[in-house]
Amino acid sequence: MSPDNQKNYDFSTLDHPLTILSRIKLLVSDLYKIYGEDSSKNGLFNDYDESSLNDGDYWSGRSFTDHKVHHPVTMLRYDSEDGLSLTIFSPFNI
C-alpha cells in the first residue's frame, strides 16, 4: 500500500461503557491475544480498568503504538464526549 492509498479505521459507539462492559472486556482480551501487552505494559482487562470506566469521563484503554512491535498500530479508549473508540492506523501514518 502506498501513502496515497493509506486509510485509518475508527470504530466508535456512544453507548455508555457500563452498558457494554462485557463487550469491552472481550475486546481487550482479544487485543491482548493478538498483541500481548500494550505500549504501557497493560494486559488483560482488570479492576483498575473497570474502576476508571465507572468513575471517570476518560479511560486510557489500550494503546499498541510501538510500530516496530505492533502491526497495525491500534488504540482503544473511552471519553464521555466521543464515546468508546477503536482506531486502527495505516502503517504510513506512523
Looking at this protein, list some descriptive labels.
single chain; 94 residues; alpha+beta; four-stranded antiparallel sheet; 2 helices; 4 strands; 26% helix; 26% strand
What does this entry look like structurally?
The chain has helices spanning 21-35, 47-55, and strands spanning 9-13, 58-64, 74-79, 83-88. The longest helix has 15 residues, at 21-35. 26% of the residues lie in helices and 26% in strands. It has two helices and four strands; from the N terminus they run βααβββ. The protein has one domain (7-93). Strand 3 and strand 4 (83-88) form a beta hairpin.
In the sheet with the most strands, the strands line up as: 1-4-3-2
Give helix and strand order, one letter per element, not per position. Answer: EHHEEE
Please report the total strand number as a whole number.
4
Question: How many distinct helices?
Answer: 2
Mean pLDDT: 88
Domain count: the total is: 1
- What distance separates the N and C termini? 14 Å
Beta percentage is 25-35%
Q: What class, by secondary structure content?
A: alpha+beta
Q: Which range best describes the helical content: under 10%, 10-25%, 25-40%, 40-55%, 55-70% or over 70%?
A: 25-40%
CA radius of gyration: 14 Å
- Segments where pLDDT lies below 50 for 5+ residues? none
Biggest sheet record? 4 strands, antiparallel
- Global geometry: globular
